[in-house]
Design goal:
It contains twelve helices and twelve strands. The protein is α/β, with parallel strands linked by helices and about 375 residues long. The two termini are about 35 Å apart.
């Protein structure tokens, strides 16, 4: 059953049911780490975990990458979900489509929220990265409407890009709500907003794609401007600034001045690219988390892929999965235990003794997880 944060909080007396989809590759190693951290976090609710099939490996065995029964259980029985990683092939495989893309559409998880956060004391604190990329999750080129045909000079491939006013408005609203929530979380954690915080940056390329990106830009800006006009006084987003950035200069500034960004909202493709690129600013894709958010249901998902080259070797970094579990807690209404997980992970990264190879360490997946579990109890 799907739940709002208020309903979930009211049900804290019973165990919450989480659908767990390890899927492919290292997903099978890092998702159990996240489950154990959730079970061990002081103040967290009790959980019942149900493992559900999905992924390319499942498709190879059964012909289905996302069984209908998986979707039914998530929709009708679960309070939330976690997804591991998927091995989508780079070439066309007849009958296969990405289960994570389909899940987002089936459950209307229209926002992919990806914090890219550095750890104080480990890099240049003057350019400390603390940014959330809010990616529209249901349309753009990801509607996967492509054709190929023979032309006079060879094959011609075409792809339809869909941007709608409705999807753009609701992802814009989600971005401004994230900015408000970040301010509240900073206050709760005892960290004041620094220069450049409390701001939503609209990322687009409307100087070239004036129709599609133009609609996205106008719709998102309209959320902010309507809030000002309709309030008759201080609006809901009073105190949150808004600016915009072309996607190419966004990439440039993200690497040169990452500290100037707070919340970035982008269409599906741009959000995917810039959030993966931004992971380099904090050391690895292995530490970057995300939550797929709808209005009543949430699914945590590490940003990294299935990493088949290290799968099964106890080398994968569990931090992205563990942080994704914390994000899931936060969006389900349990911010206090989420903060404990964030702090435990930061303490382990800062200490530097139990980092996995992607962070230039020598620790195993298990050793990194155990270090985080110990830090949680301090």
């Amino acid at each position: 059953m799907t739940n709002t944060a208020a309903k979930i909080a009211a049900q804290a007396g019973r165990a919450l049911k989480l659908g767990m989809m390890p899927a492919d590759g290292i997903g099978k190693e890092v998702l159990p780490c996240a489950a154990r951290v959730l079970q061990s976090t002081p103040g967290a609710p009790k959980f019942d975990f149900v493992t559900l099939p999905a992924g390319f490996e499942h498709f190879q065995k059964t012909g289905s990458a996302l069984p209908d029964e998986t979707v039914r259980v998530l929709r009708e029985e679960c309070d939330g979900a976690m997804f591991g990683s998927v091995s989508s092939p780079s070439h066309k495989v007849e009958g296969y489509s990405s289960p994570i893309v389909k899940l987002r559409k089936e459950l209307d998880l229209y926002a992919n929220i990806r914090p890219v956060v550095g750890v104080r004391g480990t890099r240049d604190d003057e350019k400390w990265v603390d940014t959330v990329i809010v990616r529209e999750n249901t349309e753009c080129l990801y509607i996967k409407s492509e054709t190929i045909e023979e032309g006079p000079q060879g094959q011609v491939a075409r792809a339809i890009r869909q941007i709608t006013e409705r999807a753009s408005k609701r992802i814009g609203k989600k971005a401004f709500d994230v900015a408000l929530a970040r301010e509240a979380l900073r206050s709760k954690a005892g960290t004041s907003a620094t220069a450049g915080r409390g701001k939503v940056t609209v990322c687009h390329k409307s100087n070239v794609l004036s129709v599609t990106d133009g609609l996205f830009r106008t719709a998102v800006r309209g959320v902010y401007e309507s809030d000002k006009k309709s309030a008759g006084g201080p609006g809901r987003y009073e105190g949150i600034d808004m600016d915009e950035q072309l996607v190419d200069s966004m990439v440039y500034r993200l690497f040169r001045e990452p500290h100037v960004f707070d919340v970035v909202v982008a269409p599906n493709l741009y959000g995917d690219i810039i959030s993966d690129g931004a992971a380099a600013l904090v050391g690895s894709l292995g530490v970057v988390a995300s939550v797929n958010a709808g209005d009543t249901f949430f699914m945590g998902e590490p940003v990294h892929g299935s990493a088949p080259d290290i799968a099964g070797q106890n080398k994968a970094n569990p931090i992205a999965s563990i942080r994704s579990a914390a994000l899931l807690l936060e969006y389900m209404g349990y911010s206090d235990p989420a903060l404990k997980i964030y702090k435990a992970v930061d303490d382990v990264i800062r200490e530097g003794k139990y980092l996995t190879p992607d962070l230039q360490g020598t620790a195993t997946t298990s050793e990194c997880e155990e270090a985080i579990l110990r830090a949680l109890q301090k």
